[in-house]
Amino acid sequence: MWWKSGLVLLCLGCLVASEPLPSFRIPDLELVLQRHQIPTPDAKYTNAFQDFLVKYMREYKSEEEMVKRFTIFSRNADLVERYNKEDAGKVTYELNDFSDLTDEEWKQFLMKPKPKKLQTPVKKPEIKVENLPESVDWRNFDGKNHVTGIKYQGPCGSCWAFATAAAIESAMSFDNRGLQSLSSQQLLDCTPVSDKCGGGEPSEALSYAKLHGITTARNYPYYFWTTKCRENVPTVAKISGWIEAENEDEMASIVASRGPMIVCANFATNKNRFYHSGIAEDPECGTEPTHALVVIGYGPDYWLLKNTYSKVWGEKGYMRVKRGVNWCGINTERPLLPVL
């Protein structure tokens, strides 16, 4: 149910131009709710829910399912309203594609927490943390973009594969090999030590890219679920290893001088789920990594993160988080930079 909108998006191009698009609105929503013993809700909930259905092209298989989703949506709407009051002037939150999901369903988008294990970096150059620029944004560095567009991972905990592919994409661009999307699906399918859509370690995906290389997303597209590993695809990039940052100062130095890095953080909070804008700082956030992202830059007091929840999430797919406080355990697992 809750991933149907992603598939609908893929199929819009199949519709005949003269065929009217479905409205996705529910006629007589209030009557349907009353029929299922739901008291007449405030119009702010029904109007917001109708807008949500249209924006995310959501459909449900039955009235019972719709009523269940409306109830969850209304609770989440109250949560977003409370968060906006709590963090007014600092961070804003909004209802989004995850708004009709329970906490348990939402967490299926995340990786399952894994035991910490020591990783040995392949490369450890001298890292200088002095005289760094005040801010860096690899989407526009001296007029050149080194970051591919925002992707959508869907109902699969494949963030680790997307983050790995994204960091290698930027490394290729940084090395003047052009900017092109690489196959997160290949890493998802073929990285042997992973739980696939249940999560994986970016270091294991980097190990795969070191041994076998990686192809383009065009050659090996994303399907929103695990498929059989395809081995006979052309390799467009192969890394020689990676660099680890031991702390946030080192991460800033590496990002400033060498490009975007992979990071893992604890994303299993509703403030992260409904983040819209501002510099996130959630003191109640844990430090156990559940989500992989890419640091594509920083400002004086924040990290700039690239996410894989589509452009309608956050700041057009990006997120700013508090720098220097180990936000949500962003430095619990060492940040990684692929080296070609």
TrEMBL record:
Pfam families: Inhibitor_I29 (PF08246), Peptidase_C1 (PF00112). SUPFAM superfamilies: Cysteine proteinases (SSF54001). GO terms for molecular function: cysteine-type peptidase activity. The keyword Cell division does not apply. Residues 1-18 form the signal peptide. The keyword Protease applies. Residues 132-339 form the Peptidase C1A papain C-terminal domain. PROSITE patterns: THIOL_PROTEASE_CYS (PS00139). Residues 49-106 form the Cathepsin propeptide inhibitor domain. One of its GO terms (biological process) is proteolysis. It comes from the Eukaryota. SMART domains: Inhibitor_I29, Pept_C1. CDD domains: Peptidase_C1A. Keywords: Disulfide bond, Hydrolase, Protease, Signal, Thiol protease, Zymogen. Belongs to the peptidase C1 family. This is Uncharacterized protein. It comes from Caenorhabditis brenneri.
